[in-house]
Amino acid sequence: MGIWIRDLMKNGKFIITSYFTYETPYSDVCHKYLMPSIAGLNLHADIRGVSNKGSWQRNTSYKPEFLKIMLEHHEEDVVFVDSDAEILAYPSLFNEIPDQYIIAVHVLDKNVWYGRNYATGRYELLSGTLWVKNCDESRKLLDAWESACNATNMWEQKVLQTVLEQLGIKPYQLPLSYCYIKTMPNGQLPRVKVDRPVIVHSQISRSLKNKV
């Protein structure tokens, strides 16, 4: 498992983490998008290459297990961003999340984002940017998320949303600027504009998920 660690300066209470899968296009994606943006801001980070588990769904469902490894390897709180993300500005909010929270995510209001009226499923948890507090309670949550992922073929972020609801855990709501998607599924620019996004996602998986 290849490791790319930037530890010249621990510039906050958090470490940026991610992984890419060998023998897939995501290795090139990570080196094109995420890693240069981290280097440009001189952020403390731990990015790793992992073995391809055979499908996009299985590779993404590795996320809770990977987060547990990161919590064990580091003392800081862990920030996970997908390998196609770019960090455009120092993410200072990760130093300011109130102590009572163990996880932070953005929950998308699909009525606003897509301009439709969803009778059900209006709110969608996005796991492309995740903050996880380094504590025992977080490890228990990750255990539950990992077990649930192993028991289903459902998308890992939908699994996490269900697990949080079942456990009665309220996540800290990250602003859209920390998980901003650059384009709509049809390739058009988003209806909702963010002037100065901090973390943007390219959604490369839309074109690559069926090739892995």
Brief write-up:
This protein is 32% helix and 24% strand.
Layout: helices, strands, pairs:
Blueprint (H helix, E strand, L loop, with lengths): L2 E4 L7 E8 L4 H7 L1 H8 L3 E6 L5 H5 L2 H11 L3 E5 L3 E3 L15 E7 H5 L8 E10 L3 H15 L5 H12 L4 E2 L6 E2 L17 E3 L3 H4 L4
Parallel strand pairs: 2-3, 2-4, 6-8, 9-10
Antiparallel strand pairs: 1-3, 4-7, 5-10, 6-7
Helix pairs in contact: 4-6, 6-7
Can you characterise this structure?
The chain has 212 residues and is α/β, with parallel strands linked by helices. The protein has one domain: Spore Coat Polysaccharide Biosynthesis Protein SpsA, Chain A, CATH 3.90.550. It has eight helices and ten strands. The strands form two sheets. The protein has a seven-stranded mixed beta sheet, with helices on both faces. Helix 4 packs antiparallel against helix 6 (136-150) and helix 6 crosses helix 7 (156-167). The chain is globular. The model is unreliable at 206-210 (pLDDT under 50).
Features:
single chain, 212 residues, alpha/beta, Spore Coat Polysaccharide Biosynthesis Protein SpsA, Chain A, seven-stranded mixed β-sheet, 8 helices, 10 strands, 24% strand, globular, disordered C terminus
How many structural domains does the protein architecture include?
1
Estimated share of beta-strand residues: 15-25%
Tell me how many strands there are. Answer: 10
Helix content: 25-40%
Q: How are the strands ordered across the major sheet?
A: 1-3-2-4-7-6-8
Question: In one word, what is the shape?
Answer: globular
What order do the SSEs take from the amino end to the carboxyl end, as H and E?
EEHHEHHEEEHEHHEEEH
How would you classify the helix and strand content by structural class?
alpha/beta
- The CATH class designation is Alpha Beta
Rounded to an integer in angstroms, the radius of gyration calculated over CA atoms is: 16 Å
Give the rounded overall mean pLDDT.
90
* CATH fold-level topology: Spore Coat Polysaccharide Biosynthesis Protein SpsA, Chain A
CATH superfamily: Spore Coat Polysaccharide Biosynthesis Protein SpsA, Chain A
Query: How would a crystallographer describe the biggest sheet?
Result: 7 strands, mixed
Query: Stretches where pLDDT falls below 50 for ≥5 residues?
Result: 206-210
Span of the ends, CA to CA = 18 Å
Q: What CATH architecture would you give?
A: Alpha-Beta Complex
Number of helices: 8
